[in-house]
Specification:
- By secondary structure, this protein is mostly helical.
- It has 3 helices and no strands.
- Helix 1 (8-18) crosses helix 2.
Length: 72
């Protein structure tokens, strides 16, 4: 499932090794979460599930217009 070839356990160990000895549990959780989100984004990119900013703006404008029609 992960985009990177690096196993999760190896990545987690590297993150832990990079943190200072006095890192809190919150620090550990944050860094693991950020890495997980980066990997998810890279996987989305590799599988073509991303759209560019102009397309997102177009979709939002279309959605907003549709909501405005039903509000009256």
């Amino acid at each position: 499932m992960s985009h990177t070839a690096e196993p999760a356990k190896t990545a987690a160990k590297a993150i832990l090794d990079a943190l200072p000895d006095d890192a809190s549990w919150e620090d550990v959780q944050y860094h693991l979460y950020v890495r997980q989100q980066i990997d998810a984004g890279l996987e989305d990119d590799a599988t073509g599930r991303l759209i560019d900013t102009d397309e997102m703006r177009r979709r939002l404008a279309e959605h907003k217009a549709q909501r405005g029609k039903g509000a009256g």
